[in-house]
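User: Please predict the structure of the protein below. I'd like the answer in structure-token form so I can feed it into my own downstream comparison script.

Assistant: Understood. Taking the following sequence of 405 residues as input:
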Amino acid sequence: MSASPFLIVLIGALIGGGFLTFTFRRLGLRPYLGTGIGALAGAIAPLIFMLPLEFCMFNPDPEAVYQIDALDQLLGVMLIGVGLVVVLWPLAWAAGLWAQHRNPIQTVEVSQQGLFKSRVMPIFLLAPTITILALFLYYPSIETFRLSTLLARLGARRTAFVCLDNFTSLIVDPDYIRTIGITIGLGLAIVIIGLVLALLVATMAYQPLFGARIYRTLLIWPYAISPVVAGIIFLLMFNPAGGIINYFLEGTIGMGVGWLNDPYAAPWAVIIASVWKSMGFNVLFYIAGLQNVPKDLQESAAIDGANVFQRFRHVVFPLLSPITFFLVITNLTYAFFETFGTIDYLTSGGPLKSTTTLMYRIYEVGIVNNDLGKGAAQSIVLFVMVIGLTIFQFRTQGSRVNYGA
């Protein structure tokens, strides 16, 4: 199947015109005005991605450098959809504000303090931040997307445009699918085990003890250690030949474990090191959350006959839900990105790639194998995956968070 640029623009115009016509009619605005704005915006929206990519996903030229197949076309349709959302959603939001401005609700007039009298001043104050974001965030993001469409080698002067082949090749690569499974498995284990242990340790550390401040400080300090140093520390501990853990196991049960040589044991070495590294961060927030739990609620539950575990389950833990929700998001991000240093020094992605995560694979492909195009494509996939998991968490768990007593 091939589609001409004119047909793609026409379909975008029809979708945009229909969407804003319905939106304007629902808001009580002139529908034909929405039709015109929507048709123009819908025609422009597909060009956001299609022009830089030269409509390569739908190019029927058999002699083109890039490979045209169903996966390329599917990704092209998805990019067109993203472009439509990026353009049409702000217009629908602006139409809602316009409708409210045309039909304002009569309220008591209040003084608006703190507003800028000139439009130049807020722009002037925001200029440094916007400049920094543009130089160090937006521009590198655009360059990463551009690089993901090229056949580029580290140190090579020439590049070749390959459309979305760097992305479509990942979908049919079984090793990459396996890497996704390993990354998700390690991430879930680090988050679940880390939060459970952190909550247990924080609950015990919160008890009134002599020298509690010093004790809590010692619990938090591992968070200040870099992931690389954590990897080196646990390399000395898990070394199959002369590690401390195997020395202890051989002295007690008469056998050791090939922590770094066994594809089933190596992931647990990474999990243990990563949980230890993030423990201080989690304990710090849980202790802060426990300090804000009202004692009168626990006393009331005790008077009603609730034991320690019932008070913790029905009173304390629900009030810690904002802290838990925050830690789930931050620990998931840590498990996906910041475990790279630990894995690099502890297992180097092995054995048999059993600890090769998506982040470590990006390093192997982009730096070790000098394939910058595929490395950039995989970094975009990882970024989209983390954003998707974060949105999923907000959609499914955000409504269950209790922000009140």
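That's the full token string. The CA atoms of residues 4 and 58 lie 7 Å apart.
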